From TrEMBL:
It comes from the Eukaryota. This is Protein FAM50 homolog. GO terms for cellular component: nucleus. One of its GO terms (biological process) is chromatin organization.
Length: 130
């Protein structure tokens, strides 16, 4: 085999390798696109079920007065947001108690330091007097 033939074979092998890489790249790209499409479909066609809204609908079947409807809506809103409101109220109480405790500890430290200073002044006065 001549050197020219060897060169052609090497050139053809490299060309074939580049074609394989291009095909592999296209295959990976298609797989990723199909995966994205599948996830897009699952997010687009999901069902939302709101039990509170459903209970409001079932409790207001038929003719109800406006006042009754508003009362039931208010009850539903309170039922939905009551746990969160109670959580934040409790959190606020905890923060207030913590701040009060810090303030009381600080106040105790100041009073203790003042008492020690007063005792020290009293000792100095008694030493000077004697």
């Amino acid at each position: 085999m001549s050197k020219a033939d060897e060169g052609r074979l090497i050139h053809i092998a490299k060309k074939r390798e580049r074609a394989k890489e291009a095909i592999e790249q296209r295959r990976r790209k298609l797989e990723e696109e199909t995966k994205n499409l599948k996830s897009g479909i699952t997010t687009k066609f999901t069902a939302n079920y709101d039990a509170i809204e459903d209970s409001l609908k079932t409790s207001t079947v038929g003719l109800v007065t406006l006042d009754e409807m508003r009362e039931k809506q208010r009850d539903v809103v309170e039922a939905r947001f009551c746990p969160a409101i109670n959580f934040y109220r409790g959190l606020l109480r905890c923060l207030i108690l913590i701040n009060m405790n810090i303030f009381q500890n600080f106040e105790y430290t100041i009073i203790t330091a003042a008492n020690k200073a007063r005792i020290g002044v009293d000792i100095l006065r008694t030493e000077r007097a004697s």
